[in-house]
Amino acid sequence: MANYYSDHPEIAFHLSHPEMKKVVDLREKNYEDAQKGIDYAPVDFEDAMENYRRVLEITGDVAANTLAVNSESVDLEGPHLENNRMVYASKTVENLEQTRLAGLYGVSMPRRYGGLNLPNVVFSMASELVAAADAGFQNIWSLQSCIDTLYEFGSEEQRQKYIPRICAGETMSMDLTEPDAGSDLQRVMLKATYDEKEQCWHLNGVKRFITNGDSDIHLVLARSEEGTKDGRGLSMFIYDKRNGGVDVRHIEHKLGIHGSPTCELTYKNAKAELCGDRKMGLIKYVMALMNGARLGIAAQSVGLSQEAYNEGLAYAKERAQFGQKIIEFPAVYDMLSRMKAKLDAGRSLLYQTARYVDLYKCLEDIARDRKLTPEERAEMKTYNRLADAFTPIAKGMNSEYANQNAYDAISIHGGSGFIMEYKCQRLYRDARIFSIYEGTTQLQVVAAVRYITNGTYLQVMRDMMAKTPDCALKNRVAPLIDLYEKAVAYVNEANNQELHDFLARRLYDMTCEIIMSLLIIDDASRAPELFAKSADVYVRMTEENVCAKAYYVMHFTEADLPAFRAE
Active site includes 438? Predict the structure, then answer.
């Protein structure tokens, strides 16, 4: 029987990363849950790792034998609207039932609330498996991670009220965007007013493009401060569907991810609770929500990239032309080798990012119980900065690679790839949104560029080089880092904001490709049977791209800009 986890040993490899011991020890807080008598809590590191493997095997089984089997039906039927309520596709209902029966909710939540207390790395792995089976369902399932923001910023009363419901399998959404507020969330105008008589908040207005918008529990960005027009007047609220007051006005008809309902919502005096402090909704809480969501899209992208590679490889092995299998044609095996290299390098970036998130989030959680030592505070600050720096490159590059791999899967299929009966067309349609929602790739560049210009990524590269075992591929990356340093210095010294913004994407791509080269080289040093080929191919791709982009950057001046301005 197929299993999306055990069928891909590359995923299990990342579970055995040397940093996992530190992640797990911090996450389990010296395995205190077992000492408190929680029978499913691990007693030590080895026990925790075995628990994680079991969860991933269960997820892989459900993904392969339920979600993937249902994916075509879900894509064809999709959700629909009945009496101002969203109704899932029939097979989506089955998917929800099966994932609940498998206990795949409350994944990241502490066990005292009924959760599994899994690290972000393991949640990202499970998310990848679900996405490989059905990217649209992954949206519904992975939005349970919104509860992390409530756990982090809500009151203990709110935690006890809502977290057990998510652990039991209720659904969530984050209601941020509006007709006039997409990427620019400072323009959010959904109104929040406090009712002194009822001692609660009321929400009024419209939200648009809300994924899983008719969920059980919503986190809502709304304007609580009358007369304000910027982010300082926004707060975060919790809306419980049981209280009523929100209708689904419209379900979008989308190019892909058909199983994931994208809703337009109308709020009419909907009762809500303030989450955290007033005025911090956009400044602090949405940033936490978005970073978690972006990591989720990175995992979604890796899952779909894996499935696109699988489809392309299987077809190339079977399809014969001119008396031989097409996998023997250089043009085809070049395409497949690049797909696999992007997949392996992107996955390595995803899980490195997830480990950084785990390390700082675990220390932050420990700080709720006791004062951190100076060394722990310094570590938390370092990992927080690394998580912030790596998240936009993990989301941006993996979402672009998913699009490229889905495109190439169709190319390998030739004319058959354009026929609706083949899965690769659905993967192509599903992938297109990945580089758009939760912040376009252009916005990921904006989020990352300060770490480019202030030297953070360059220092990361130097640190990684120092830890990478000596080998021929490492020696080939070294001059690329020097070239990258010169390109960054050139842009900084130009001291021209428009030039800086114009060239930022090329610097971003160079940053990502060099870091991913070093990650995949390290993977290959520890498991050459899995990654040696991908490391070789990816480094060659990086040489090709970095040299070309560095040349472009360092031969571009302010005088060249007018030729590119649209008229």
Answer: yes
